[in-house]
Amino acid sequence: MDAQTKHHLTPEEYLATERRSETRSEYLDGEMFAMTGGSRNHNLIVSNIVCELSLQLRNRPCEVYASDQRVRVPATGLYTYPDIIVACCEPQFEDEELETLLNPALLAEVLSPTTEAYDRGKKFEHYQTIPSLSEYLLVSQDSFRVEQYLRQDGNRWLLTAVTGLDGRLALPSIQCEMVLAEVYDKVKLG
User: Fold this and answer.
1) Domains in the chain, start-ordered, CATH in brackets?
2) Closest CA to 46 of 71, 69, 78
3) How far apart are CA 17 and CA 37, in angstroms?
4) Partner residues linked to 85 by β-bridges
5) How confident is the model at residue 1 (pLDDT cuts 50, 70, 90)?
6) How far are the Cα atoms of 15, 78, 102, 136, 160 from residue 25, in angstroms, in the given order?
7) Where on the phi/psi map is residue 40: left (φ > 0), alpha (ψ -120 to 50), or beta?
8) Which DSSP state fits 93?
9) Number of Cβ within a 10 Å radius of residue 15
10) Are 34 and 23 in contact (CB under 8 A)?
11) Tens digit of each residue's pLDDT (9 = 90 or more) over 158-171
């Protein structure tokens, strides 16, 4: 094989490689894409959201996962690691390893300069094909702002943006509420 020829991995080859790897990679169309680590603000925001949603969902049939839970988008073949995932009812997994979720109800991404365009564009296009997905959140780490995309009839998505530390956002897909003061606890904007 010459240097110009790319080897395209099958999903099975990707999963085998990913399971042995110490770093995480996303997968699409035969290619793996290494993921970078998050900033301090990114990590605080993810932790704050996971903690708040876990408390609100305690004793309810929903599970909250952080960045290490892989999601597969069946219609497009994307394997990805959203920052926050909520699955309700019975979680469905791709195989007996229970590491690739198929039926998220809510996905959230904390925006960074290197991924913001992808998270808003192509990644959201992939996510929209997941039948179980009802809500998609984009959380800024540069300002106190959360954008919510809520699935409507006819596969339309309604955008609501909430700003400021006094902001509150209802999450109807999981019957929770997001308070921006809690999302941004200990986060310092520069």
Assistant:
1) 39-183 (3.90.1570.10)
2) 69
3) 19
4) 65, 107
5) very low
6) 10, 11, 17, 21, 31
7) alpha
8) B
9) 20
10) yes
11) 999 999 999 999 99
pLDDT, mean over the chain: 92
Distance CA 127, CA 123 (A): 6
Q: Which amino acid is at 83?
A: D
Q: How far is CA 71 from CA 11, 18, 78, 143, in A?
A: 13, 13, 8, 27
Amino acid identity of 152? Q
Q: How many residues does the chain have?
A: 190
Q: Tell me phi and psi for residue 143, to 5 degrees.
A: -155, 165
* Radius of gyration for the alpha carbons in the chain, expressed in angstroms and rounded: 17
d(CA 52, CA 183): 8
Could you give the dihedral angle defined by the CA atoms of residues 35, 39, 45 and 48, in that order, rounded to the nearest 10 degrees? 90
